[in-house]
Specification:
The complex is a heterodimer of chains A (about 900) and B (about 375). Chain A is mainly beta and about 900 residues long. Chain A contains 9 helices and 58 strands. Chain A has a 22-stranded antiparallel beta barrel. A 5-stranded mixed beta sheet of chain A has the order 8-14-13-10-11. Chain B has 4 helices and 20 strands. The chains are: A mainly beta (about 900), B mainly beta (about 375).
Chain lengths: ~900, ~375
């Protein structure tokens, strides 16, 4: 008889017994049930005895050799079944019979009570005795849907990962016993003991998770898996699960992904409500916002009160502060990657919410059970009843509406293929005490085909189309007009994922996007109107990129992500390109000396460049990780804003003969630390960002419907730097986080050409330079049904250019002199929101769930400035849009 | 309660409470403002517009806080003009209007192809100069005819809280632009100096204060700008409301002054105009006007513009009978309202309040 055993420092587990060919059991006994330990065992060495039994009975007795070395069998009188004997004889051990072939002997102190029940064990087949792949999938217990983004941690190898698109995960482990921990927000965290045996049947662990509400347990709030913060290789990644977002205080009872990410360090918004967000001193137009891969150009509804994303359909939100992985590109500041959930493959269900000024409803279910599903949801506002019923002239002339529809079809023909088709349509309009109706709409479609080629190689094909149109309709007699700007794109992307082993993952592919921008067109809407038709020519661009990225865990402590992206951009005709003479100015603008006409598809200009990304992590110990990163990203499309606050007038233009691509280089260094286990997390990160070819408007620029709009723009340097801190409490009844950011965002535009030399060539604050930014988010779970949440935000007022003196000139009573650009600041912003959520009584297996959300926005009614503008006499008018305490109530439901 | 509830909600949705806000301005030192021009039309020639005649003036003031109403005028400055041909003229401080300095030379006018520079020395010794300026190389031909055409202007007005599209009868006054085929741009500016007659209806026509000539610097006070490369089209100057406009019940006249400016001077006015259109939510970012004046002291700011222009003018007369429809003279009716006391203007034209009245007929006035 011979044994092949695998040893590790503390373990010596009998993992596989190799039976010598000549050995034939005379008893033909097979299985644990046949094993009786009788008095003949007395005096034998326990390990030797157990090894004999394995060979004789063709069973696998899993134990650690070193722990049982000192044992000699004694005191056996009558025959015992093997597990009875071991339970009595080995007092400090759990003896667990997994099946008739496999029995595990575990020291009670090793995994605690977890080792006491066979339900907590996962038995996997293992032919390879040295290194095995621990493969698995996580899914929802009810719907059987894969859970994407769940965190999976194996403490014994000090490694963690997130589940992929099909809920899959993979680790390289040895064939010993491992405890695997799974966490996902909204689900009950669970742990299992994984054992390998030749008598195991399954090659992959299929782990089902219970939704927290189903299990009547409290939800543990994590902005990201707590192991992930230490393990993740990407510096500057923020992940928010929709369940986390739902825990935050709401405005009008509806959760808001955009408002939630603004509570994260390094992220801010320009105003009370805003049409976007700023990441590390970047502009709203420098964020790539993707919903299932399709670009969202305006992430807000109702003038910024609501975000454009339906919270009932959003599954995950990932924000990359910087370029993100090499698979993403095209924006200088950040990537916000929003994924929609797949419809339930097994059951029909619906969810929604009814609020005072808006409601939403989502329905989902199988089309073909276990093979195809749908989810479709819509939201609509009905604020006009409030507005119109109020006896106020200005309000009579006001309106604000939105609706949106989000849908997804998910096809799951087999284990190796899945296809999803996501569509999105949204419409907004508002009219604020004037005759101008502002409106915008988005139409998006994306098709995503995931294909698994082998266990190690998978690919994802993504086809996307995005259309964004912004309009103004003015009804004013002879002056009536319709204005429109737009951007449309079509994208193709193929993304391969090759995971050699868990510690070496490669991602490579290519993408190509064609964009058509319409900077603006205005037409009279009545015959013989006074408004002259003006059409600023459309612009066309083709952006193509190839990328490769490797994620390597070089050692348990050292990980590296290296990515390289090459992007190229072709500015294409048809177009008319002006030639400017900056030595001769016409007002502030250079004189147009010539123009060139380009035909359809003709190349006008080309750009390209490498975008390297590297991110390192080094674990100082189990609790502390150092991180550093460098990202370069190139942006070829630019959002042009010629107003003091973001507005529907903002439009996109493409790089070309007069506008170079914006290049952002970002350097970060940070430290992450867990305290008291993983209860607290502290993250400190510093960043420095250099931006080449940042864009700003020249003094006196008129960028609205200007055919030579490029002449109204200058390009210069941008610099942003800062320090971000986040302290999180992940567990316990009271949890949440505190984020503080100190950062600066500066611009310097110096040129020998006077009109391009902004602010005398000196540094000045960018419009997003808000040095101090503090967010506190706290949740307190009062009991299993009710919770209380609080959100506080403070930030330095936004920079502003203001009149500092005035004079009269001729008949003009007041000519204003302005300060240096952005020299002054609006008042500091701060606001406190609270909310209380009361869920229906929770019952196991009860499908209908309802909850009341009572929230108070702006608890102490601060009149924060949304905008400050100046009348013709230079008097400042502060506009506060949410300038009072605002209570709301919403009923959310789910079936 | 219901109303209160709705009010609370509305506050959020739209009210957008607007309130005044005051910034603390950091030590903004008052700076000199210079306003003035010279043209090819001398004092004597300007009488032939026809008009009262005007000397070239320079107004000096200091910038003031945004909240202030009046600028502080600058007294006791030394203002001079020099030309590229070596001539020099001194301005005389006005005894009537503080901060005003006049070039009291009846026959001085700017000459083509001569460069001019304005200099200002304040009594504290600080000195300022404009750049060299000259009459634009390309000047328009003879000023075109002034015409009008009847029109109706539609505007929304609020009446009893309701928005009503209302039609206003009146005339659009235009000037014909002369042909310009040089290929160069002419930068036009027009401004307007209205005069009209008012007769007090409740007193004898023989009284000296029965008939007055009214001027109002704030009526038709907007200027009009136009860049022109070709000419030969009518440029709209202003809209004159007819029905219900008491200024045209008698005879109405406007001196229409046309200037051809340098590009820089034109831009200056263009940007002042742009500034005046602000105060809305989606305003473009603000900016400072560019001056052609500099201080010899690099830290001292100076604002304003000194222009050298080509100037022409025409006087235009208008009578309510010139339009095809009847326009009622309501002077008498307005003074016959059943009120406790009629306004003083009904008894003396010198008490007319919507302008500056005089009962001395201007030399140039033409009765119909």
């Amino acid at each position: 008889m011979q044994f092949l055993c695998f040893q590790r420092i503390d373990y010596k587990i009998l993992c596989l017994t190799v039976i010598i060919a000549s050995f034939i059991s005379t008893t033909f006994a097979d299985g644990l049930k046949d094993i009786l330990v009788d008095e003949t065992a007395n005096g034998q060495d326990l390990i030797e005895y157990l090894n004999d039994l394995e060979n004789t009975y063709h069973v696998d007795l899993i134990f650690t050799d070193s722990e049982l070395e000192a044992y000699t069998i004694f005191g056996v009188g009558k025959p015992y079944k093997i597990e009875e004997f071991l339970t009595v004889f080995l007092n400090g051990y759990y003896i667990t019979k997994i099946n008739n072939k496999v029995l595990v002997i575990l020291k009670k102190s090793q995994f605690g009570i977890l080792g006491s029940s066979k339900d907590n064990f996962i038995l996997l087949n293992n032919d390879d005795i040295k290194t095995v792949g621990l493969n698995g999938k996580i899914r929802d217990i009810n719907t059987k849907d894969p859970i994407v983004g769940a965190s999976v941690l194996i403490q014994s190898i000090n490694s963690g990962t997130l589940t992929g698109d099909n809920g899959q995960f993979r680790f390289a482990v040895d064939g010993t016993v491992h405890k695997i921990e799974i966490r996902y927000i909204g689900y009950q965290s669970s742990s299992y003991i994984v054992v390998f045996s030749r008598y195991g049947v399954d090659r992959a662990a299929i782990i089902s998770m219970f939704q927290s509400s189903t299990e009547l347990e409290n939800i543990t709030i994590r902005a990201q898996g707590n192991d992930e913060i230490v393990k993740n290789q990407l510096s500057g990644i923020e992940k928010l699960n929709i369940e986390t977002i739902k825990k935050m205080p709401t405005f009008m009872g509806e959760v808001d992904p955009i408002r939630s990410i603004i509570t994260l360090p390094g992220v801010s918004s320009n105003g009370e409500v805003s049409s976007g967000f700023n990441v590390r001193g970047g502009e709203p137009g420098q964020n790539l916002i993707l919903q299932d891969g399709a670009v969202i150009y305006n992430p807000t509804h109702l003038f910024g009160f609501f975000s454009a994303f339906n919270p009932d359909i959003v599954k995950n939100i990932e924000l990359y502060k910087g370029g993100g992985p090499a698979t993403f590109g095209g924006r200088a500041a950040s990537v916000l990657d929003i994924s929609l959930k797949n419809g339930n493959l097994n059951n029909h269900s619906f969810s929604g919410g009814v609020g005072l000024i808006s409601s939403r409803f989502t329905v989902e279910g199988p089309v073909i059970e276990k093979k195809a599903s749908y989810v479709i949801g819509g939201r609509i506002s009905y604020s006009d009843w409030l507005i119109q019923s109020y006896d106020n002239i200005q309000l009579k002339n006001s309106a604000a509406n939105f609706y949106d529809l989000t849908g997804k079809i998910f096809l799951f023909p087999n284990e190796n293929n899945s296809i999803s088709i996501s569509g999105y349509y949204s419409y907004d309009d508002f009219q604020l005490g004037s005759d101008s109706v502002f409106s915008w709409n988005t139409k998006n479609l994306s098709v995503n085909w995931d294909h698994t080629y082998t266990d190690n190689l998978s690919g994802k094909l993504l086809l996307t189309g995005s259309n964004y149109f912004s309009h103004i309709n003015y009804d004013g007699g002879a002056e009536s007009f319709h204005y429109q700007n737009s951007i449309q794109n079509l994208g193709l992307k193929y993304d391969f994922l090759f995971s050699q082993i868990e510690s070496r993952i490669y991602n490579f592919g290519f993408e190509s996007t064609y964009a058509l921008t319409e900077p603006g067109v205005i037409r009279p809407t009545i015959e013989r109107g006074n408004v002259a038709e003006t059409d600023v020519g459309n612009q066309r661009g083709l952006e193509t990129a190839a990328f490769i990225q490797g994620n390597f865990n070089l050692t348990d402590r050292l990980g590296i992500m290296v990515g390289l992206r090459y992007s190229g951009f072709l500015r294409l005709g048809k177009d008319k390109i002006y030639e400017f003479d900056y030595s001769t100015l016409d007002g502030r603008y250079p004189v147009i000396v010539d123009s060139a006409l380009y035909s359809n598809g003709e190349i006008i200009d080309r750009f390209g460049g490498f975008e390297p990304r590297i991110s390192l992590r080094y674990g100082l110990n189990d609790f502390t990780t150092l991180k550093a990163s460098y990202y370069r990203s190139i942006q070829y499309l630019h959002l042009i804003s010629n107003t003091t606050i973001p507005s529907p007038l903002d439009y996109w233009i493409a790089s070309g003969p007069h506008i170079e691509p914006t290049i952002s280089d970002q350097y970060t260094i940070g430290i992450l630390r867990d305290f008291r286990g993983t209860t607290y997390e502290l993250s400190l990160e510093g960043f420095y960002k250099n931006i080449d070819n940042a864009l700003d408007y020249i003094d006196g620029a008129d960028l609205f419907l200007n055919e030579s709009l490029e002449a109204g723009l200058a390009q210069g340097k941008g610099t942003a730097y800062g320090f971000e801190m986040q302290l999180k409490r992940n567990e316990g009844k009271l949890n949440g986080w505190l984020s503080y950011t100190y950062s600066r965002s500066l611009r310097k535009f110096s040129s020998e050409i006077a009109t391009l030399n902004l602010n005398s060539g000196d540094y000045y604050s960018s419009g997003h330079d808000q040095p101090h930014n503090l967010s506190v988010v706290l949740n307190y779970q009062l009991d299993s049904r009710s919770s209380f949440s609080l959100n506080f935000n403070y930030k330095t007022g936004r920079p502003i250019t203001i009149p500092v003196s005035k004079f009269s000139y001729g008949k003009i009573l007041s000519v204003l002199n302005y300060s240096q650009r952005n020299e002054y600041r609006m008042p500091d912003y701060h606001r406190l929101d609270v909310s209380y959520t009361l869920k229906d009584k929770l019952k196991r297996n009860k499908r209908y769930m309802g909850e009341w959300v009572f929230s108070i926005y702006n608890l102490y009614g601060r009149k924060n400035a949304y905008s400050i503008y100046f009348d013709e006499n230079g008097m400042a008018q502060k506009l506060s849009i949410l300038g009072s305490i605002f209570p709301s109530i919403t009923y959310n439901f789910k079936y | 309660m219901d109303k209160l509830f709705r009010s609370a909600l509305l506050f959020v949705i739209l009210i957008s409470c607007v309130e005044q806000y005051e910034f603390k301005i950091k030590n903004e030192e008052p700076a000199l403002v210079v306003e003035g021009y010279i043209s090819n039309v001398s004092y004597e020639a300007s009488k032939l517009f026809p008009a009262d005649g005007r000397y070239f003036k320079v107004r000096l003031s200091m910038t003031s806080d945004v909240a202030n109403v009046r600028d502080k005028k600058v007294k006791h400055a030394h203002v001079y003009l020099i030309s590229s041909d070596g001539s020099r003229w001194e301005y005389t401080e006005s005894s009537e209007n503080e901060g005003e300095y006049m070039l009291c030379d009846d026959n001085f006018s700017a000459k083509k192809n001569i460069l001019y520079k304005l200099g200002v020395i304040l009594d504290d010794g600080e000195s300022y100069e404009s750049g060299w300026e000259q009459i634009p190389e390309i000047v328009p031909g003879e000023m075109g005819d002034i015409r009008f055409e009847e029109t109706e202007l539609e505007k929304y007005i609020y009446r009893n809280g309701e928005k009503v599209l209302t039609s206003f009868k009146g005339v659009n006054v235009t000037v014909d632009l002369p042909s310009s085929n040089s290929g160069n741009t002419i930068y036009y500016k027009w401004d307007f100096f209205p005069t009209w007659i008012y007769k007090s209806p409740l007193i004898s026509i023989h009284r000296s204060d029965y008939k007055c000539w009214i001027e109002d610097p704030f009526y038709l006070s907007d200027y009009v700008l136009q860049k022109d490369n070709a000419g030969l089209y009518p440029k709209k100057l202003f809209f004159l409301e007819t029905v219900g406009n008491e200024r045209i019940y008698g005879r109405f006249s406007v001196l229409i002054r046309q200037m051809a400016l340098s590009k820089g001077y034109f831009t200056y006015f263009e940007e002042i105009e742009d500034q005046g259109n602000r105060g809305k939510l989606f305003d473009p970012p603000p900016y400072n006007l560019e001056t052609n004046l500099t201080s010899t002291h690099p830290d001292k700011k100076v604002f304003g513009y000194f222009g050298v222009v080509d100037e022409q003018a025409k006087r235009w007369y208008f009578d309510r009978l010139d339009v095809s429809y009847p326009v009622e003279n309501r002077w008498k009716a307005d003074c016959s309202l059943k009120v406790l006391a009629q306004p003083p203007k009904c008894y003396s034209c010198l008490s007319y309040e919507n302008g500056i009245p005089t009962n001395i007929e201007p030399d140039w006035w033409e009765d119909e």
